[in-house]
Amino acid sequence: MSAGDTLPTIFSDRLARQAAAELHAAWMLVGKDGRIVNAGGDLEHHEIEDARPGDDAADALPLVVGLDFGATGGELPSMKRGGGGFSDVKVFPVTDGAWLLLLDSSERSKQLRGMQQRAHDLELEMRRRGRDAQEATAAPTLTQVVADLGAAVYSLQPDGRFETVGQAPVWLDDLRRRAPALGVTPDAAELTPFLEGFLDEAREFWADGGGADRLRSGPWIETLPDGVEAPFEATALRLDDGSARLVVQLLGASFEQNRDLLQAARSTRLQFDALLKEIDKKELLLYAIVHDLNGPLSSIVASLSLLKDSQLDRDQAKDLIERGARQANKQLDMIKQILEVFSSDIASMEAFESEADKAPEAAACLRAAVETYRPALQDRGLVLDLSIETGGTAPVVGSPDRLERVLGNLLSNALRHSPAGGTVSVSLHDEGETLRFVVEDEGPGVPPALVDDLFDRFIQGRRSKGLAGLGLDFCRTTVKAWGGEVGYEPREPSGSRFWVRLPKAR
Fold first, then answer.
1. Taking the CB of residue 462, how many other CB atoms lie within 10 A of it?
2. 400 and 450, same domain (yes or no)
3. Which end of the chain is more exposed for a tag (fewer CB within 10 A), N or C?
4. Domain containing residue 307
């Protein structure tokens, strides 16, 4: 498939010309969410090895980190490749995102550096020839200093024209000889179309008469008639005597250094974000391990406590023993699973099901979590009120094991904070497109000062004990990954109500 068959019409003719010029054209279509929809062309030449549909565009092309696709157009700073070449990245917004067009700009960058070197050599030659003794001993003026820095200085005249002040820099003379079509003359500052637009802002700045003493245009790039792309920057100055000056500078090595530094910073930030993501995964895995081992162990301890302290008949005792044995076997299985998780890729923690025939059944997961904590609730003398209002099977997006962990965590919170003899209410509600799990207790509730940060990591209520503040963060992170929500609200007259809302599997 050719690029013209896939890209919009705006690219077709341009790509044909650029392909003939061996610019190694490549492209990506990126949605507004920053994910790749399609990609093609000579991606390998631009050192893009992995650009599959659905991937994050910033992972394949770090230069676009933070770019607002669908709203931003134009040309990004050239990207320096590992082999020393350069690639241009042009952005064309469309309705649902943006097209990214990548072109090899190594030859143009080489020509620009050559042009800058020629200008530098000419400047050195002029300085070697020297100035007369008076110029050599006289104190330099501001205009001379600016000219020595390689900038063109213009003065705004009463009739609105611009006149060159002092000696023009070598690069400007070079441009005049090489690019007469630009219309550069000693009394004209309209060097490029971009500069003409900046002058409208500059005239307003000069007319204002107060505030800052300078206005910068920011860097821009102009393509010269011979195909070389040159970076410029303009500055409007207001001098102490009220006169106006315009300084136009051809940016050199510092521009490329800043561009390389920006790209390096973006790459470093991308690596830093990836590292934080891996740390988050490991901390969530650690919490899952602690929680999975704690739940069955609590049930075993509660069963043994009931056997020790209660007057039970043979059948009741047998039931408690069997329940404790089931939880002990479950804990053994969990330990095996933990070893398997550590020996496999940690990315398995992110897997979940969204198809109805594979997704977890909501009521079954809720009952399993309740059965795990039932002995502990009985041991505390708590009343369990279970209500399921789905009217049949209700598959929900998620993973069975982790959904039980989420619900078990909310039950564990209710168990820790409920007063002896209180009631813990657990319910499941059908809300049409979603299902809502609710766990309520009659404890003291959450202090208002902690409500806003309740689901953040390592945040605990003043009565929390046992587990560090990872549980609710685990719930939030897991449920959010499934497209759901988790929340808290106070319960009248006292107590807490935690809820989880998940989309139904289809």
1. 9
2. yes
3. N
4. 270-503
Does residue 339 sit in the same domain as residue 456? yes
CB 424 within 8 A of CB 374: no
The token duo for 118 is: 């020629």
Number of domains present in the structure of the chain: 3
Give the sign of the dihedral formed by CA 473, CA 478, CA 481, CA 486. Answer: negative
**321 and 421, same domain (yes or no):** yes
Amino acid letter, 425:
S
314-343 and 253-309 helices, crossing angle to 10°: 160
Q: Which of 87, 104, 121 is the last residue of a domain?
A: 104
State the virtual CA torsion across 49, 53, 56, 62 in degrees, nearest 10: 30
**Which candidate, 446, 444, 443, places its Cα nearest to that of 423?**
443
The DSSP secondary-structure symbol of 361 reads B
Nearest C-alpha neighbor of 414 from the set 396, 427, 401: 427
26 DSSP β-pair partners: 41, 102
Whole-number Å distance between alpha carbons of 64 and 76: 8
SS (H, E, C) 413-427: HHHHHCCCCCEEEEE
Name, in order, each residue with C-beta under 8 angstroms of 111's C-beta and a sequence gap of 6 or more: 226, 227, 228
Digit-coded pLDDT (tens) for 264-285: 778 788 888 877 777 776 666 6
Cβ-proximal residues to 448 (8 Å cutoff; 6+ apart), any chain: none
Amino acid making up residue 210: G
Q: What is the pLDDT of residues 372-403, one digit of tens each?
A: 888 888 888 899 999 998 877 889 999 998 89
pTM of the shown model: 0.39
* Alpha helix ranges (H) inside 130-208: 133-137, 142-148, 170-178, 193-208
